[in-house]
Records
---
Amino acid sequence: MQKISALIVRMAQDNPGWGYTRIQGALGNLGHRVGLGTVANVLKRSGIEPSPERSKRTTWSTFLKAHWKLLAASDFLTAEVWTMKGLVTHYLLFVINLADRVVDIVGITTRPVLSRSGVMSSLEFLDRTAFSCVPLMKRSVSTPNLVRHA
């Protein structure tokens, strides 16, 4: 019975639009005779909602699998560099594509004067430099200075 219960749960998770009758039919095609009540009880015990509600909600794992190739993260980092003028701090904005872990350097500057910090500054910078698909870029880019006067 555990094997059939696991199969019922898997069918419901893999096919959110399938109701009890469709799951019962698929099990019948595989040679398993199961009643509608059994399918309903197994799904209820597993915390899986009936088909109309199940198909309206997306789990995080389903969402991440569907969008993994498009997800990216961005951040700033600093590097201290000795130059002829002494120790200079360089600020670097980078984006990493999560699917293939490719890192793209979006911009480097020694004078980051942005109106706001954090994500909003990153988004303003990206918008200002007309990068619409930064996570999908696969090449080095030269960008204008990060400096923005308030």
Note: Residues 2-14 form the longest helix (13 residues).
---
Amino acid sequence: MDIVVYVLLAVILALGAALAIVLARRADSRAQGALADTVQRVEHSLREQERTLAGLVNERLDRSEKAQAEPAAKLARITETVERLEKRQQAAMAAPAVPAAANPDVTGSIQTSKEETRLPVAEGWRLRDFYQGRALVESRNGILFDIGPGSNLPGLGRVETIKRENGRLVVVAKNGVIIALSEERRPPYVPYRY
């Protein structure tokens, strides 16, 4: 009987092992199926991400190509313009100057004399003093102005220059000139000391 028990035990153990193997295979096949489903989902997700990334990369490349094309086109237009201007300049320099036919009626322009272009003398204004490129002038109303080039005088406009002309000091403004009196400038008063 001992042998029979051992044989039965061996058979039970063998059947148990076979059952365990079958159950393990079923569990493995289920796990493999679940794993296969997961792998397929991941592959699908990766393909979608790859398409999205490819679209973004293509979009960025298109933008960068356009951004590079615009300055290149502007540079090309500028280069063409410069070349045209250089050709015009060379053509103008190369073309000989054609003298105008002498017309006996045309004698030339008349140059105006210095006196004709001279500004009028401002009536009522007096140049009182001159120092360090500035002048002290008195208006018609007795108001004193300390002026220099660029100053504005009422009625005469902007002062263009203060200069010595024909031995006289002259203030040249936009609308007239102020001329100093012919009297000589006296030295400042220095009191006599005892």
Note: The radius of gyration is 54 Å.
---
Amino acid sequence: MQWLKRLGGWLGGDDTVLNNPFYYATTWKFWQWREPKSGEQRPLQVFHTTVKRGTTNYDDVLHFHMHYNLLYHAVPGHLTQRKLGERVDFMAEELQEFIEAAKNQDLVGQADALVDLVYVALGTACMLGLPWEELWQVVHDANMRKVRRAEGTGDHHTIVKPQGWVAPEAKLLEVLYDHGYTKNTWCDSNDWDGINAPPVTDRLCRDDEVYKCHPLKNDSGV
């Protein structure tokens, strides 16, 4: 897979890893799924590497999570409904702070609220193990294929989807697969009828409170 090829470059000493979202001077565990051996349920192979600090906003937030021993992952995966609800509430709180600052024309408050909102959103992406820069590029490319609404048909400043515009979801899923995401990993096989996609099983999902959830953990066991 593409993400394993990149990992091979890092382990081989390739220093051109500026686009690596885990570009920090610390030891990181990378997890790779492999075929199970006899008696194994969810086997993993573990790689260790030392990476350097990066320069993106995502890098900074990841550094924050690592520094304070918060939940973070290198492979895309699901959070429990409890944890997702917590993150939704957190982002809603920051959005409300921006709303209040906007009402008062408080530019400093608006700036602080926006940065906090992005910080929490990127923190959630760290928890989900999302390859942020690649996902961002896919969505950005899709947005750049939109067009300005024609004059005389409403607000000329509105950007709309032209005929034939392709949504980014398929490419987003491809990026997640390239980085090790497999939905069945997060589903109870007993719920799979072999045809329809099985539902995500909450007890298998990541959470910083229920440590038994899933074997993809950082060094803190979270």
Note: Residues 195 and 210 are 31 Å apart (CA to CA).
---
Amino acid sequence: MIQRILKGIKTAGTLEEPVKYTEKTTRSERFSHSDRYMIVGLGNPGEKYEKTRHNIGFRAVDALIDVLHAPSGRHKKNGIVYECRFKDYKVVLVKPLTFMNLSGQCVAALARFYKIIPERLLVIYDDIDLLEGQLRVRAKGSAGSHNGMRSIIREFSQSDFPRIRVGIGPKDTEYSLSDWVLSEPLMLSSRESIQVACRNAADCAITWLSCGIEEAMRLYNKH
């Protein structure tokens, strides 16, 4: 299915600067930006955190960069953004550089800049309450125990936006929660499981872009 969907990808390009609305801006002109999507992968910047469990969101975005043939990223609003196209949609891939607990500052600023409505925002992040490698897709929901999502919900003052949770549990009893999420998996099987899960999260995001959140939930919540 993903291969059929990917046939709709256009050559990556740069998005135009956002329109500044005025009182004279017509309704049709305002809604011309409803074809914009933003996909955010949560994580911490820097080589130190690159392979940790908490950086699954960043790794899923890396997989999307490859799939969508996105051009090199650039710094904007405390994040790295990769602007590309999928079918007739303009897609912005984002890695916040604020560190996890302040992710919302970057995401909210970029959502305002690109005129992203909540239904067109997808956030990918790790979840300690799911088994390692498991995906859960939702159209909305709470932040649970995830500080990055708490920050985003706080900045948006709402939680009605889609998300993909990628399992990193169960936590080893010898670790604290913070030590677990900020550590790299020691076992090869765990590293491979997380790698596959990041690719699956990227595929799920493509399904969301092409078919919507209901289809993404139907296909990826059954595993």
Note: Helices lie at 2-6, 27-30, 56-67, 103-114, 147-156, 177-181, 188-211, 213-220.
